């Protein structure tokens, strides 16, 4: 396994390599891998949240475009269509 490609920091790879040279250090290496696995999972979850936000923004734009409304003038995804309809019909809403 190429640990660097998994995002493991060099200092952790060195810690991983050091016990490899010594017998009976499997538990140390396991602990290093488990910690790294936890970091990768946390990063994956963070990226999933970012992707969800991007997808929501894309949906926001797609919903606003048919009304010819600038997305910057809409309030939020939950009120997007109603707000855009009101903007399109000339009834301006107060922006919170």
Tell me what the structure shows.
With 96 residues, this protein is mostly helical. 61% of the residues lie in helices and 0% in strands. It has a domain at 3-68. The longest helix has 39 residues, at 26-64. The chain is rod-shaped and about 75 Å long.
Structural class: mainly alpha
Instruction: Work out the strand percent.
Output: under 5%
Question: What is the H/E string?
Answer: HHH
Would you count the extended β strands for me?
0
* Average residue-wise pLDDT: 77
Q: Uncertain runs with pLDDT below 50, 5 residues or more? A: none
Main sheet record: none
Q: Topology, pairings included?
A:
Layout lengths: L9 H11 L5 H39 L15 H9 L8
Helix pairs in contact: 1-2
Describe, in short, the structure shown.
This protein has 96 residues and is mainly alpha-helical. The chain has three helices and no strands.
């Amino acid at each position: 396994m190429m640990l660097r490609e998994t995002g493991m920091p060099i200092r952790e790879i060195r810690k991983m390599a050091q016990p490899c040279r010594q017998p009976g250090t499997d538990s140390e290496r396991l602990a290093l891998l488990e910690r790294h696995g936890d970091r990768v999972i946390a990063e994956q979850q963070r990226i999933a949240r970012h992707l969800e936000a991007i997808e929501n923004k894309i949906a926001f734009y797609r919903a606003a475009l048919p009304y010819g409304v600038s997305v910057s003038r809409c309030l939020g995804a939950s009120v997007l269509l109603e707000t855009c309809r009101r903007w399109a019909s000339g009834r301006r809403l107060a922006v919170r």
